Every structure is written in structure tokens, then in C-alpha cells.
Amino acid sequence: MAIGESTGESKQPFSGPAIECSSVSVRFLDRATQEQRDILRDLDMHVPAGSVVALLGKSGCGKSTLLRSVAGLQAIQSGKIVIGERSIEDARDSLAFVFQEPALLPWRTAIENVCLPLELQAKMSRWDIRKRAELLLKTVGFVAADHEKLPTQLSGGMKMRASLARALVTEPTLLLLDEPFAALDDMLRWRLNEMLLELCRQQSRTILFVTHNIAEAVFLSRQIAIMHHGRIAQWIDNPLSLPRTSDMRSTTEFAQFYGHVSKCLIDVSQGELDEAR
Question: What CA–CA distance (Å, rounded) separates 115 from 74?
């Protein structure tokens, strides 16, 4: 059963919005020098509607700042961000953010954590909220016995799956992810990657995610944006076919594209070294 069918409502499949960033700049105060430091520098980016885009680049290049800016969690000093045809403020009800840490409320059970966003919206009955949360937990691999467990009783992978279910329960058309699988072992990380792709297959969302893992970017994305010094240094279309399964990771095509992305990252860094010489 696809997400959105739990309450008996007749819903049309939704499609995620485009993201348009024009000359976006963000500056932070460097407390050591008391000077303003540019984190994003006149950044331009177009994420096509319904696309899955990975942000790659070395630490400090501005990936997470860009993600938080799109979410409206970080103020920008100049430029403009448009989601679909709406401002960030108007689009907040259609997006969800998944952080690197699950950030589940420790006094609420797994299902109560998933219910929370809908409870705050106060637009659905308690019964409908509960049913949708149950469906989401089932979709991410929870069994009924785990629904009433507190976060302290859940494994790291289960916490992250509950966090993902909580993000999806409002049926967002835009999903923003900041390295949510970074702390997990490789086997669990790949399983959650596959689960995320399946959720995307069920409903077309626009997804923008930050990762340091090249293989994850290659497996999940349709485009990869390599960031450098607060800007998009390279934009790479992913040639791998859809749908993608675990078997694809062992193919020649996957290895070749992985090598291409790795070389692009090296070239971007090499350019920085050349400038310093």
C-alpha cells in the first residue's frame, strides 16, 4: 500500500517542486577574528521538479548551510530562494527535514514521535493520525511490537527509520536530508538507501540531500552537485538507469560513474591547490 492511502481518502500522486536559488549568500561571524566569513557566495542552483540531487564536497564548503537555507532554518544575507512558485515561508508546510541525528523525543514512543507533526498541524482526527503513523512505520520496516517502544529501546537504525517516518507523515513534496545515514554501518546504510528509493518510487518527491559518501550519492541521485567555497563547482547528471537495486552496486556502470565523480571531486580540490601555488 502506498503512503497516503491509509485514511481511505482518494488522493492523486503528488510531484515535488523545483528549487531555484539565485545569487544566495550567507555570512557567519568568525569569533576568532571578529570578521564576517562567506559560507555561501552568490550561489546559483536549479533543482528540477521531482529530482533527487546529492550535494557533495569537502567539509566546510557550505553543503549543510545550503540545505538549511532552503529549509528556512538559516537566514540568507542576499539573493533569493524559490520552492516551486512559492517563497520559503509559504512552502514550509510542504517540506520536511531529516537531520543527521534522529532527534526523537525521549518521553514519546516511536509511534507518538511519528504522530507529532500531524498533531501539531491539528488538521486530522486522532484516529486518522494514528492510522497514517502506523502505515509509515510499517513502510519503514517496523513491526507492531516496536510501535510502543521508547527511543532508548530502539537501535540506531530503528531510530533513523522512525525519524524518516516522522518526516514523511505529513506527505511532504520536498524532502531535505543532512547525512541521516552517516553514523550507521554500511550494511544498514545500504538497506535504508534502498528503502528511501522505494519511498520515492511510491510518490514523486523532490529530494535534496547532503552526503560525504560518493557511493551513496551515486546510488540515490539523479544529479550530483559538487560544492566548493560556497558555490556549485560542478553539476553532474547521473547516467545510471532507474529503478535501482542492490545489484547495481556491483556493475561496471556503477564503478565507472563512481570513478568519474571521484575524479571530479579531486579536480575541484586540485584547482584550489593550483590557486594557492
Answer: 26
